[in-house]
């Protein structure tokens, strides 16, 4: 049996999924791959303990209980900097995909990694000479548990804020809320800052 419930975040409504003991999905409603792991026969269950734990984690992350004042698109609330105990997770997929998601969970709040850096870590762990950053991007893009597995902290090597299932505006706002340094980063379709252009070369 699978279950689902809802959470109202400052960035919009979210859906949670569970197998009864573990969190198996957490999505911003309407994002790419929304509810991809949610069984069609899933039952809505608001009081499941794993959902209560997830709400507590999300409340702490966003810095206040759900249902409070919602910031406008021009505002952001700063997430708690205290260590958060994540609910129990269950993620299906290949060993490669699970390894990538494990690396994502190691990225601290307020910091970022590039797809190439993650690829280098995977290559080191598996003894390969090289792992393609594009393969990492595929695994990151299908992350079923937003925020707790923080795929929003992955950026392009040039600083491009590309590739977030719920949209790059959400990605930028989450990084801003976490206090990440965005001075060398830029939105897709916009020219990179001078510093980023200089570091990436001609």
UniProtKB/TrEMBL annotation:
EC assignment: 2.1.1.63
Compositionally biased residues, Low complexity: 73-86
GO terms classed as biological process: DNA repair; methylation
Region (Disordered): 61-86, 183-202
Enzyme class, UniProt record, top EC level: transferase
InterPro entries, per database record: MethylDNA_cys_MeTrfase_AS, MethylDNA_cys_MeTrfase_DNA-bd, MethylDNA_cys_MeTrfase_DNAb, MethylG_MeTrfase_N, MGMT_N_sf, WH-like_DNA-bd_sf
Alphabetical keyword list: DNA damage, DNA repair, Methyltransferase, Transferase
Domain Methylated-DNA-[protein]-cysteine S-methyltransferase DNA binding: 95-180
Molecular functions (GO terms): methylated-DNA-[protein]-cysteine S-methyltransferase activity
CDD domains: ATase
Domain Methylguanine DNA methyltransferase ribonuclease-like: 3-64
Known catalytic reactions: a 4-O-methyl-thymidine in DNA + L-cysteinyl-[protein] = a thymidine in DNA + S-methyl-L-cysteinyl-[protein]; a 6-O-methyl-2'-deoxyguanosine in DNA + L-cysteinyl-[protein] = S-methyl-L-cysteinyl-[protein] + a 2'-deoxyguanosine in DNA
Family: Belongs to the MGMT family.
Name under which the protein is recorded: methylated-DNA--[protein]-cysteine S-methyltransferase
UniProt source species: Actinomyces bowdenii
Organism taxonomic ancestry: Bacteria, Bacillati, Actinomycetota, Actinomycetes, Actinomycetales
């Amino acid at each position: 049996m699978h279950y689902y419930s809802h959470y109202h975040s400052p960035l919009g409504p979210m859906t949670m999924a569970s197998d009864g003991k573990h969190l198996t999905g957490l999505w911003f409603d309407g994002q790419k791959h929304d509810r991809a792991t949610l069984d069609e026969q899933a039952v809505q269950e608001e009081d499941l303990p794993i959902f209560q734990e997830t709400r507590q984690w999300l409340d702490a992350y966003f810095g206040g209980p759900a249902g409070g004042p919602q910031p406008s698109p021009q505002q952001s609330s700063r997430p708690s900097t205290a260590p958060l105990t994540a609910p129990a997770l269950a993620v299906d997929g290949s060993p490669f995909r699970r390894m990538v998601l494990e690396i994502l969970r190691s990225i601290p709040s307020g910091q970022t990694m590039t797809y190439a850096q993650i690829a280098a870590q995977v290559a080191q762990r598996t003894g390969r000479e090289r792992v393609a950053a594009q393969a990492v991007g595929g695994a990151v893009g299908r992350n079923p548990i937003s925020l707790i597995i923080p795929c929003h902290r992955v950026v392009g090597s040039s600083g491009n804020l590309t590739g977030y299932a719920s949209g790059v505006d959400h990605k930028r706002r989450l990084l801003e809320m976490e206090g990440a340094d965005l001075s060398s980063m830029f939105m897709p379709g916009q020219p990179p800052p001078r510093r980023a252009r200089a570091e990436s070369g001609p």
